[in-house]
Amino acid sequence: MDDLKTMWAEVPVADRQDLAPARARLLNGMHGARHGRAGVRREEAGTRHGEAGVRRGRASVRFAVAGGLAAALAVGFVVVQVVADPAPASAQDLLARAARTAAAEPDLNPRADQVVHTVARDRSAIFAAPDASGEPVRMQDEVREAWSPADSSGAFMLRQGDQITLMKLCSESFDRKRRTTYADLASWPTDVASLRERVRQAAAAHPAEPHLRMSYTLQNLIDKSVVRPSLRASLFALISEMEGVTVKPSMTDALGRAGVGVRTAEGTTLIFEPETYRYLGYAEENRNGHVIASHALETVELLDRLPKEKVTFTEPGCIPA
C-alpha cells in the first residue's frame, strides 16, 4: 500500500490531450453505453434537475497515467482519484453553496392569470403535554395539494386527503394587500442590498410578534420563490447575514430524506440536499430541540386554469389571500 501511495504522489496530473487516446479505448470497450436522456420536469423536491449546473463542481477528478499503469490502460482501465468537496465550514458557506444551486435553476415566471399547482407534505408533532414541550408522542403526516391563482384573485382549490375544497379569495382584504403573491415576485430585486430593504419593509407590516416578523417574512418569500429560484438564491445570501445562524449537519425533511440544515436564531431550520445543496424544505423546533413541524414541497407546475376536479366542499364567503 505504501508503494502505491508513493507511486500516486509521483504521478503528474494529465491534461485532456494526454488522456484522449486512453479515453477513446475505454469508451470503445464499454458495453451497454447510456443514451442521452431528454426532458426535465420541474420538481422542487424529490427529482433532480439537469446535471449541468446542479452537479457542476461536485467533485474534482484526476486521471493519472504512468509507469506500470500503461499496461492496464491498454486493456481499457483508467485510474481515477475523486476528491470530494469538504463539508461546509459554516452556515454562511452552506448558504453560499445553496445560493449557487438555486441560481442555476430556471425561473417559471407565472403570469398573473395562471395557476400555481403545488404538491407538498407536512409533518406535525402530537404531544402529550398541552404546551408542546418535551418529546413528541408521534408525528402526523399530511399531503397537501393546492391550486393557487398567481395573483391571489378568484378561486383557490385545496386537496387534503380525500376532500377537495374550493374557496373564493377575497378581492379586497388587508391580508391580501400585505402578503406577497406568486406574481408579485417578478418585481422583487435580486441584488442583496435592494432586497434587504424590500424585505425590511415587508417585515415591518407583518402582524406577528416583532421578534418573529423578519423570520416569517423570509420563510414566506422562500416558499413563494419556488417559481423564481433566482430570487431564492438572493434570499439565502440575505439569511447568511443574520445573527445566530448555525449548521445542523443531520436533518430529515417531511418526505424522510436526509439533509443538512441551517438553523436560524428563531428556531426554523432550512433543509438542503447534502450533495447538491438544493433546497428541500424546512422544520420548526420547540425549545427542547424537538421537531414540531416540517414541510417539504414535492412538485410545482404552472397551469392556465383550475383543473376539473370533483369538489367535495365549497367554503362559504371568502378567505384572505
Brief overview:
The protein has helices at 2-10, 16-29, 51-54, 69-74, 91-103, 174-178, 192-204, 210-224, 229-239; strands at 59-64, 79-84, 115-126, 138-149, 155-160, 163-168, 246-252, 258-263, 268-272, 279-285, 291-303, 313-314. With 321 residues, the chain is of the alpha+beta class.
Spatial ordering of strands, largest sheet: 7-8-9-10-11-3-4-5-6-12
Largest sheet: 10 strands, mixed
Rg from alpha-carbon coordinates = 24 Å
Shape: globular
- What distance lies between the first and last C-alpha atoms, to the nearest angstrom? 66 Å
Number of domains: 2
Low-pLDDT regions: 1-75, 77-82
Proportion of residues in helical segments: 25-40%
Structural class: alpha+beta
Instruction: Give the ordered list of helices and strands.
Output: HHHEHEHEEEEHHHHEEEEEE
Keywords: Membrane, Transmembrane, Transmembrane helix
Protein name: CU044_5270 family protein
Transmembrane segments: 63-84
InterPro entries: CU044_5270-like (IPR047789)
